[in-house]
Amino acid sequence: MNASNDRGHGMAAGIGTYASDELPGGTVDAVVIGGGAAGLNGALMLARSRRSVVVIDSGTPRNAPAAAMHGLIGLDGTPPAEILARGRAQVRGYGGLVVRGEVAASAPAAPAADGDLRFTVALADGRAVSARRVLVATGLRDVLPDIPGLARHWGRSVVHCPYCHGWEVRDQPIGVLAVGPASVHHALLFRQLSDDLVYFSCGTEPDRETRARFAARGVRVVDTPVEEVVPAADGGVAGVRLTDGRVVARRVLAVATRMRARTEGLEGLGLPMENLPDGMGRRFVSGTAGSTEVPGVWVAGNATDPTAQVGASAAAGALAGAHINAVLVAAGPPLA
What we know:
The protein is of the alpha/beta class. It folds into two domains: 3-141 and 258-331, 3-Layer(bba) Sandwich (FAD/NAD(P)-binding domain), CATH 3.50.50; 145-255, FAD/NAD(P)-binding domain. It is built from six helices and 20 strands. Strands 2, 3, 4, 5, 6, 7 and 20 form a seven-stranded mixed sheet that branches. Strands 1-8-17-19-18 form a five-stranded mixed sheet, with no helix packed on it. It has a five-stranded parallel sheet with strand order 9-16-10-11-12, with helices on one face. Helix 1 runs parallel beside helix 2. Mean pLDDT is 92; it is low at 4-14.
């Protein structure tokens, strides 16, 4: 998870340092922008098909603050950094390259002599790579409500996904911070995990039917606005302070974030985007196997499917990688 508040300050730390490959000269078959589950799995499929592929990795995956990844059989409970380290090693084992860097610009370039597509991806440090095809797997940023003290606990005592973190917070006093209509369902999902749940309406004004449903499930609704998150002595959350001065004790806070696809350095590709329902964010539009309206460019993972967990993102990356390889087969080998 990567998070920011409404002022846009980044929250998540990186995944540590690792040796970066050198950016190659000439033109590669594919460049993958993003070194998370989707990007690495797409690169893996391409490398296994004997394609020259370069992954550009900023080193700040969405789930960096999380202690472990859950919901994927065989890997449940594995630290995200460990999964990514394994993925990088596997891509490299088939000849792929993983380069640490921030993409500053990307755009179509003049076609090759045979008419095949070309793209240029430039990094913030001035390096650049040419590629025949592009896979965008930049992921997204989770944007939190601008409540003082909330962001510092993101990924630990402040969570968003009942399937990613629910078991770990089961039976604890949970508070749901409402951000819109989607928060009602969000609260009911977390109610499945704990009998002690308080719904902070945060100005969303639940209707009578919603309040009746909450009452039937033993969910208490607090309409007084939340002023700040109160930290606990152990570094977690002790509760929330309301604008009337009261403190409601909670050990876990759940909030449905606004999810925004990472677009930095991608403007030159002209990829279409669309808003998510209920103001919950913005994503890249993609079609079959991650294809887009821009010839030669695919999108996979959270950048186009914001709710996808690690397994779904990896599967989408694999499908996109296979599709790119098939398109390159049809295009034929590049002319020397």
